[in-house]
Description:
By secondary structure, the protein is of the alpha+beta class. The protein folds into two domains: 22-160, no CATH class; 166-371, Histidine kinase-like ATPase, C-terminal domain (Heat Shock Protein 90). Helix content is 57%, strand content 12%. The protein has ten helices and nine strands. Strands 2-4-5-7-6 form a five-stranded mixed β-sheet, with helices on one face. A two-stranded antiparallel sheet has the order 1-3. A hairpin with a 5-residue loop joins strand 8 (363-364) and strand 9 (370-371). Helix 1 (25-44) packs antiparallel against helix 2 (51-78) and helix 6 packs across helix 8 (214-232). The longest helix is centred in the middle third of the chain and has 46 residues, at 120-165.
Amino acid sequence: MNSSERPADTGSPSFLPDICQRHAVLPIILGALLGSVLFTLLHSGPGQFDTIYFSLTALFMLWVVLTSTFLVCRMQSFARHLSIAWQGSLAWLISILVTVFCSTAAALLFPDLVRQLAGPFQFVLHTGLISALVAGLMLRYFYLQFLTSQRRESELEFRLEALQARIRPHFLFNSMNSIASLIPEDPVAAEAAVLDLSKLFRVALRKSDQLISLAEELSICKAYLDIEKLRLGDRLLVNWPKVLPAFAAHARLPPLTLQPIVENAVYHGIQPLPEGGTLSLELSERDRFCYVMISNPIASPQQTRVGPDIVDVDDKRSSAGNHMALDNTRQRLEAAFGDAAVLKNSRTEEVYTVTLRMPLHSQTTPFGLIVEPRST
């Protein structure tokens, strides 16, 4: 393995797959049987299949593979503090030593049978070389998969940080102007707006690998909408549940997951309408999943934004920004929950809807995040 390819942190998780779980045994057995079939076909020649040779080869390969798997599993439990090079070297040596031990035992226990295939020394040497080659190729494959996974996680973390740190400059500028205009007229409302703005920035500075409750995320969205209402006034109406359901306190999600969706609803949906519109939020629970549905009215292509933002609604940059925010949010959910989370969007002539599904049950995510179990 190239030192240039090795991650700098020698204490990083093992690059080997988790072979200590029960569900990992079946693929290992199937792989050994497939290898036995290939060796039998090479031995028997085209058009023939020696079932006795296959049975003996399968027995020997299962003996070697399952023993190696058990020892590598035990090695992983204490070798995580070792560098990746040492982990791979130990796994490779274990595979070779187990193969040599098993082939030597086979040569001693079944000398006549081994003598029919090859001499005892040749049998041990050939099986050891084949084990070294196959184990080396497999370990290289696992290492490349590990690098790919690490690179993908780094890219996702970078996007999470970028999205989490991004508060639209024009939103900050407009918010500060609105707060400044409120100070002489309504100091209490101005103070509340400053607190709402500080809540947004406090969440934006939080680490991306932390999860917050759905209720806390909704309070952030509410703070954002309160600030936008200073700017849009009666043009922005919000249909919000008066009392959040119980599961909102237990469902977990990455911070600033819903806020960009709400921001899109305001920026791309309600703001372009001269008369404004209503942003609606619906929460539900079904089959140990929670569902969040956010909908907003949309303008026809002929309508334009009013006020200082006189831009065609069909502006391609706005559409691209909308899709980019949804794609980033979708990737954040995938990074946190894998396939268990789904983000979908749909539109009719008058309404745009984003639906989000998240798990409520306890699980470990690809980034090592722990989704807390529901309270009974």
